[in-house]
Design a protein that fits this description.
Radius of gyration: 12 Å
Shape: globular
Distance between the termini: 9 Å
Strand content: under 5%
Structural class: mainly alpha
Length: 65
Amino acid sequence: MSAAITKITMDELNHRLEDWLCECATTEEEWDVIAEYSLHQKIKLVNKMYDGGVAQFLIDAFSEI
C-alpha cells in the first residue's frame, strides 16, 4: 500500500477529499467552508465521517492504483 500512496499527489488527495466532503454537504455555505479547510483538516474530518476512516477512504478513492 505504501508504494501506491507515493503515486498519489497532495493535489489529487486534496481534490478527492474535498469532492467527497462536498457530496456530504447540504448547503452551498458548507461547500464554501469545506473549500477553506486545509488538507490536514479535511483528512481529520474524513477520518471521523467515513466508514472505516481515512484508510478505507484512500482504498476506495484510489482503487485504480
